[in-house]
Amino acid sequence: MAQAQGTPAETESPNTSYTPMTPGQTRAPKPATETKVATATAAQGIASGWAFEFLPDGRMILTEKAGTLRLIAKDGTLGKPIAGVPKVDARGQGGLLDVALSPGFASDKMVYLSYAEPREKGNGTTVARAKLVEDGGGAKLDDLKVIFRQTPAYEGDKHYGSRLVFAPDGKLFITVGERSDKGPRVQAQDLASGLGKVFRVDPDGSVPKDNPFAGSDKGKPEVWSYGHRNVQGIALDAEGRVWTAEHGPRGGDELNRPRAGLNYGWPDASYGIEYDGGKIGAGKTQAPGTVQPVYYWDPVIGPSSLTLYQGALFPAWSDAFLLGGLVSGGLVVVKLDGDTVATEERVPLNERIRDVKVGPEGAVYALTDGPDGKILKLTPASGN
Hints:
The protein is an all-beta fold. The protein has one domain: TolB, C-terminal domain (Neuraminidase), CATH 2.120.10. It has two helices and 23 strands. The strands form six sheets. It has a four-stranded antiparallel beta sheet, with no helix packed on it. A four-stranded antiparallel beta sheet has the order 5-6-7-8, with no helix packed on it. A four-stranded antiparallel beta sheet has the order 9-10-11-12, with no helix packed on it. A hairpin with a 5-residue loop joins β14 and β15.
């Protein structure tokens, strides 16, 4: 790893005067050498895209928030809407959200979708799977089945979380939010509630026997970890361990490594404050029985996504996490040394970034947020 300079990547003043619990828990230094990127447009004309994934043949599959699923050809052409997508509640932060491919997609063609599902008593994050069938230039989802429903439902339009990732053992991790409002958000601490959790299920939605609360009456058996606010980034590190990126309020965005059965603090502990400037609860950054974030940001970056870089085009980013920044307006690159952040780098793109993926050739692809969105392709600029 390049020798780090002392200057942090974050240059703005924090929202709070909180002191980090451990050295290097925030405002890590920039790397000694800045990575310069060249940017091209890989696809455009996207209506409020939320997530995308590469298919084995190099095409992409894309979700648009209003409820549209599309294939994107290798030349960037957007396909017609795929039939068979479930109904979504697209108000506020809701809609058709993440998309993930089965680990065996090349043979089984199974696609997993997360979405804000309209329900009798509000809505909630739901995950369904279906087979992608292509025929005569069109495509549809066949035999769609719901495998997970966040409960209780809530009549709100915020904090669905809603990222999906498969672990090396084939288990599916699902992130959900705590629905934002002061009433429901305390349920992030309630193991009987499905709000503010990371869940772990089998591909068919059944409960793995080695889940921390499986076979007990302490909490929902699907729960992996709890005390989360709004997790919109999840990825595996080079060792196959799960990491998450979590939206804070004003300050307090977090990078965590969720472990089985542990409590990550929200809303009893936070490095942020309310949007109106008031304290979160008692204004504590630590609480008994809770785990500190590995790293936090104040002011926020708005971490919309998380992916591990293991391509060949950017060797300086090898095994680094790439985060999409809705507030920072670009990529945030964090390089780890063990379980601590050694360096943080900002790659400005002057766009709200909703999702980030690494292409098969090692380029980085970033989905911009908004009604006229695009997918940017990042490659090394000359002189790197």
